[in-house]
Amino acid sequence: MTSVDSERAGAAASMPPHLHSLTGLRWVAALMVFLSHALILPAAVPPGDFGQSISEFVALGGYVGVSVFFVLSGFVLTWSARASDTAPRFWRRRFFKIYPNHFLAFLVAVAFMIYWGPDIGFESAGDQAPGALPQLLLVHAWVPDLDIAFSFNLVSWSLSVETAFYLCFPLLLAGVLRIRPERLWYWAGGTLLAIFLVPQIARVLPAGELSYEGMTTWEYWFVYVLPITRMGEFLIGILMARIVLTGRWVRFPLWAASLVFLGVYVIALDLPREYAIVAATVAPIALLIPAAAVTDVHGKGSLLGRPAMVWLGNASYAFYLVHFFAIQAVFRMVGFDFQANYLTALLFVLGACGLGVALAGVLHQFVERPMMRRFATPRRPVSVAGRATAPQKEPTG
After folding, report:
1. Which parts of the chain are coiled coil (predicted)?
2. DSSP assignment, residue 207?
3. Please, is 116 exposed, middle or buried when counting C-beta atoms within 10 Å of its C-beta (0-12, 13-18, 19+)?
């Protein structure tokens, strides 16, 4: 992997190795995905128009939360890039970060479908068998068949996308490091433009039946699932990290970035869905993440960096993998035909979230962390652009 240049060395001297606000932001993103999945079930949606409005409002959050994950990955991996690193070492760390949890979640999904699937409207494990090998190999997002892309543990399609990001990261970082600092913002703008053109390109794909969100299967897969079209979010994260590290970040406080993010989110609710689910919100995400990072760099801290948020953020990958199981388990307990009121809907969401956090804590503590310590932690201090540092915790992005 290409060494980080001298500009980073100067900027990094005063920068903390861990950006706690970004770790907390990971939990917010995971919670957005959780709520979008929970509030499509009758047990979680209060009756009446207001309940339906809540469901529609949080539904977009699932899409936005995934975009936050993708941009964060590019940002955090660039921020923590090791000058003495090599591509094989990087890929090894990434493998032991994501695959053990993914494999266990796959086994849980199989067991879940065997024992509970028919009771809650899931297809059997046998019906989803064609998706097993692509999912185990983490290539299922490349398959233009949503039954395969979303088979077994349906949220794992994003791991397939992240795997493509990780494979490309050494090359992407080497390319971005060649960009002159004064041109980084232009490259960021060009990347955002390319992301916004993806839905327009999708319109020329073969016609088909409407599938998700008013789009055909081909359109939805191309806009939302295909790793190539999601690569722009990862790249914008890399570029924004470089902008901060080279001192090109403008003064834009976290509170202002948060307001912009919320404002665009509300606007996106009324946009055509092919734009709303990715393209419309990437720009505010690309501002929010550096703003949170700079808050930590300046030692100001934020609510996102509180200890509880950091713990939840560290467990957010495990939570993301198991949250749908937790939702369905609680749903099975209350019954498929259960109709909620405001109190029971709140209790359902809190119960499913609590169960998901508990399962995630176990998975993070007893699987993810031991695997990372055993297989992915450097044995001796490493150097970043000539600056000696203690061994760093593996980034969560």
Report:
1. none
2. P
3. middle
Within a 10 A sphere around the Cβ of 139, how many other Cβ atoms? 15
In the three-class reduction of DSSP (H, G, I as helix; E, B as strand; rest coil), residue 76 is classed as helix
Do residues 128 and 147 make contact, with C-beta atoms less than 8 angstroms apart?
A: yes
- How many beta carbons lie within 10 A of that of residue 182, not counting itself? 9
Domain ranges of the chain: 6-388
- Quote the pTM value: 0.90
Q: Say how many residues make up the chain.
A: 397
Give the angle subtended at the CA of 314 by the CAs of 313 and 319, to the nearest 5°: 75
231 touches 223 (CB < 8 A): no
Contact criterion met (CB below 8 Å) for 39 and 57: no
C-alpha span between 367 and 349 (Å, rounded): 26
Q: Mean pLDDT in runs of 10 for the chain (397 residues)?
A: 44 61 98 94 81 90 98 97 90 95 94 71 66 95 93 95 98 97 98 97 78 83 97 98 96 95 97 95 98 92 93 98 93 75 89 97 95 73 34 41
